[in-house]
Structures are given as C-alpha cells and as structure tokens.
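Quick illustration, no need to memorize.
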Amino acid sequence: MLVVDDNDAIRELWHTYLTLSGFAVTEAVNGVDAIERVVQAVPAAIIIDFSMPVMNGADAVRTLRHHPWTATTPVIGLTGHGADPSTREFRRVCDTVLEKPIEAEALLDALRDLLRRGLRRRSECPEV
C-alpha cells in the first residue's frame, strides 16, 4: 500500500491505521516521490491526495496509469476540494475519490472494495 500526502500528520495517521488493519504501508510526500517509489516496488493499491506541491495527485495518477506496471493498480484519491472543476481530471483517473474529512472506516471500506474487485479492467486502461 502506498500512501501519498504532503501533510506529515495525515500520512502518519493513514500509515498507522492501515498497518493496524493488516496492510504493509509505504509513504510518499508528493507525486514525484510516489512515482519514484512505485518503480522500486509496485503497491497493491495507492491512496493519494489531490493537492500537493511539486506534482499534484491528478498528474501523478495520470503518469502512473501510462506505466505498464501501474496501469491497473487501484487508486483511491482524497480531496478537500469537493466538486470543484479543478478535481475533474483527478476524479477521472482515480478508481474512487473520497472527500475530506474522511472517516477511517470509509477509507478502509473503499480500499477493501477495490481490492476485492481486483485490478481495473484492461479496457479502461490507456494504451502503453
């Protein structure tokens, strides 16, 4: 599991909660860091914030969707921007988007649902 957020406290919170729920968790502080980490080891799923410096969540997920190793990796997007038009692309490239504030159980339910459904269908993935 890869948790991507520029907020240290939020990242630590999700890391602790997911670890206690039985997941192995790694962390990244922005989109560029996330891309570098998945090259080292492809996670079972990615939980990523939309608004981050260096590279935002939408750009990072779009990049990951075009890589053959991560094209089908389930992605849960997190945003505090509601239905703002700036999140349109983020909502398109993520499998699920949750709006902040996020209850821990809601995140875990979404994660389990994505993992239960398996990888994204190949027909939904961009050509690589």
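Confidence is low (pLDDT under 50) at residues 119-128.
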